[in-house]
Amino acid sequence: MTNEQVKQGFEEVYNDFWCRYKDRVPAKHSREWDRIYARYAALKKKYPFLEEALTNLAVELDRRMREGLKYK
Description:
- This protein is an all-alpha fold.
- The protein has helices spanning 3-21, 32-46, 51-67.
């Protein structure tokens, strides 16, 4: 794995996954969760070294949804 691949992985996980949902967590039964989990699975497959980070981010989104929290 090159330095560029590591950089790309972190950028994609943060910018394309976390930043998309961190401030607008979907409601519990929203179809958006299907898209979140599909993206989560694709990123885990593409960047296995970031699996733990991705899992923690998905868990945090779930927690925010359950608690109805909004973060800015």
